[in-house]
Design a protein that fits this description.
This protein has 15 helices and no strands. It is an all-alpha fold. It has 2 domains: 151 residues, Orthogonal Bundle (Tetracycline Repressor, domain 2), CATH 1.10.357; 142 residues, Four Helix Bundle (Hemerythrin (Met), subunit A), CATH 1.20.120. Helix 14 packs antiparallel against helix 15. The protein is flat and about 50 Å long. The termini are far apart.
Length: 318
């Protein structure tokens, strides 16, 4: 879809074979995304029934983190052309020539294979296979296909970011159970309103238009984006209660999740109603900030509940 052609090899750094530092290679891993992946995977491990030896859990978390970093590196390799024309991504290592595309590709592939083998051999092959599928989905399905071809890219592609707690769960149980699916669905449904709030706040439509990326605000406009944010937020609230209905969480989680859900809806309604001027930008900024905090708190509640030994509800479904 994009007609952009970036001759990265013409940059001075590339002409010398790339001058990437350790910091540049670390940036390829998308460390902020990796930190969220590790945290949600940890919750999946803790929430899963049966328990696992701490060393196995540590190996699983390390492999999942490296796998997430590998996906980030492969994403930057493939997206170098569009990253170069967007202000918020132009300083990434590949578009500015610090790391050559081939170097990023080799780095990402090596980490991908290594992380999957470690998780499969030292934990279990069900978790290893799921990690391999997650990397494939993020690169082949989201990065190479959805991102450049449909405004539903964030909706469907959000699955890639939702797999880590499921991988953590499978690292313990060896199977994908309803509880793991519930944790997956929370992140999956949370992703669209979270990202679209950022898109509206940062006003990055011009970036995506230049890059030829059909993000929803570009294709459908800001009013429709606000409507979709509200719809997904309303769907997210009952999804948040699935762990309780499945017997994964109890009263502490449920009560707090309901309170946080009301606050999320409040911010989404403000974004929907306030559409012009500085107030609209502030509403989007507050929704984005709260949605980030919301996801951390929702998963932290599960950790706190388990650490405190609080009882979970009897399963209502599943």
């Amino acid at each position: 879809m994009s007609d952009i052609n970036l001759d990265i090899a013409s940059t001075p750094a590339a002409a010398e074979g790339g001058q990437g530092t350790a910091g540049d290679y670390f940036a390829l891993l998308k460390p902020r995304v990796m930190s969220l992946v590790v945290f949600t995977a940890l919750v999946g491990i803790v929430a899963a029934p049966g328990g696992v030896h701490p060393w196995i859990a540590a190996v699983a978390l390390l492999a999942i983190a490296v796998g997430a970093g590998a996906a980030g590196a492969l994403n930057m390799w493939y997206d170098a052309d569009i990253d170069a024309v967007m202000k918020r991504t132009a300083s990434r290592p590949v578009p500015r020539g610090a790391i050559l595309p081939g170097e990023a590709l080799g780095f990402g592939l090596t980490l991908s294979v290594g992380s999957v083998l470690v998780l499969g051999l030292l934990v279990n092959w069900a978790a290893g296979a799921l990690l391999a599928f997650t990397i494939f989905f993020y690169i082949a399905v989201y990065t190479m296909w959805l991102k450049r071809w449909t405004a539903q890219n964030i909706v469907i592609g959000g699955a890639a970011g939702a797999f880590p707690p499921m991988i953590g769960w499978v690292s313990v149980t060896g199977s994908v159970d309803p509880g793991a699916i519930a944790l997956f669905l929370i992140i999956f449904v949370w992703t669209p309103p979270h990202f679209w709030a950022l898109a509206l706040w940062k006003k990055i439509n011009a970036d995506y238009t230049r890059a030829g990326v059909p993000m929803l605000p570009v294709v459908a406009g800001t009013d429709e984006t606000r409507r979709q944010i509200l719809i997904y937020t309303l769907i997210l609230m009952p999804v948040t209660l699935l762990p309780s209905l499945l017997g994964v969480t109890g009263l502490f989680y449920t009560s707090a999740a309901c309170g946080l859900g009301v606050m999320f809806i409040y911010h989404a309604v403000r974004v929907y109603r306030i559409r012009e001027g500085d107030a609209a930008e502030i509403a989007c900024k507050k929704l984005f900030g709260f949605s980030t905090l919301w996801l951390f708190l929702i998963f932290a509640l599960i950790l706190i509940e388990r650490a405190a030994g609080l009882p979970a509800f009897a399963p209502v479904i599943g």
